[in-house]
Amino acid sequence: MCQLLGMNCNVPTDICFSFTGFQARGGATDVHSDGWGIAFFEGKGVRLFLDPQPSCSSPIAELVRNYPIQSRNVIAHIRKATQGSVGLENTHPFRRELWGRYWIFAHNGNLLDFAPTLDGSFLPVGLTDSETAFCWLLQELRQTFGSSCPERLELFAALHRLTLAVAEHGEFNFLLSNGDCLFAHASTKLSYIIRQAPFAQAHLSDQDVMVDFRAVTNPHDRVAVIATQPLTDNEVWQEMPPGSLWWFEEGEVVKKLATRPGPHKPATTI
């Protein structure tokens, strides 16, 4: 399986500290050595770095770790391949345009018997179930709302409905963002932490690195970090209940909904 890392903030923030620990899990402290990627939103643009090499030894990952790119929404992924070969075309996160904005998606899990009908508006380039799911989600959102982006409450409700359908096919942990907010689905395992005043020190679990956030933040800063497994060993992370969809904006939780189907609910064919 893979691991996910996301960040949503109320002010542009760099992810260097969290990425330092996350990078080590790509082949050094963990087995996720089949590629990695990270996407930074900057206004309507996106900086996207992808590498099919292990993140622990990737020169591109070293650049990202030492390059304090400021962003309000970040999605990163380290891969342990289940479907699709190791290669650049199968490396997360994936990017597509919808309603004049870039959307970024990364997935951890394995979807079985997942073969949705695609109308050609969004097509996968690689061979992963993840990219297929992303294309189907965007297709269904555009079919639902047409050419205009809906209000976020409507968008979240539609995404909840679509997530229910896909999740019936297997493990579907994901992060999704259009640069305004970040959606996270905890199918089996995700945790988050919100850092805000009063700030304190944090120590990474995978590297002997510590930061004093009091020295690098302002009192009004608020940062939500989402990860498959907590990245620090001296902070209290909140585990997201399996089967829950979350909406983060401005560095805080706006809304969450349950996505675990009932025990007698039949599978949905998509």
Task: Write a brief structural summary.
Helix content is 18%, strand content 35%. It is α+β, with helices and mostly antiparallel strands and 270 residues long.
Please outline the helices and strands.
Elements: E1 3-13, H1 16-24, E2 36-42, E3 45-51, H2 59-65, E4 71-78, E5 94-98, E6 101-111, H3 129-145, H4 152-167, E7 170-177, E8 182-186, E9 191-196, E10 201-203, E11 210-212, E12 222-227, E13 238-239, E14 244-249, E15 252-258
Antiparallel strand pairs: 1-4, 1-12, 2-3, 2-4, 5-6, 6-7, 7-8, 8-14, 9-12, 9-13, 10-11, 14-15
Helix pairs in contact: 3-4
Number of helical segments? 4
The mean pLDDT is: 93
Uncertain parts: 263-270
User: How far do the termini sit from each other?
Assistant: 23 Å
**From the coordinates shown, what is the CATH architecture?**
4-Layer Sandwich
Going by helix content, strand content and strand pairing, the class is: alpha+beta
Question: The biggest beta sheet, please?
Answer: 7 strands, antiparallel
Architecture overview:
The protein has helices at residues 16-24, 59-65, 129-145, 152-167, and strands at residues 3-13, 36-42, 45-51, 71-78, 94-98, 101-111, 170-177, 182-186, 191-196, 201-203, 210-212, 222-227, 238-239, 244-249, 252-258. It is built from 4 helices and 15 strands. Helices cover 18% and strands 35% of the residues. The strands form 3 sheets. It has a 7-stranded antiparallel beta sheet with strand order 3-2-4-1-12-9-13, with helices on one face. A 6-stranded antiparallel beta sheet has the order 5-6-7-8-14-15, covered by helices on one side. Strands 10-11 form a two-stranded antiparallel sheet. It starts with a strand and ends in a 12-residue tail after the last strand. It has one domain (3-258): Glutamine Phosphoribosylpyrophosphate, subunit 1, domain 1. With 270 residues, it is α+β, with helices and mostly antiparallel strands. The chain is globular.
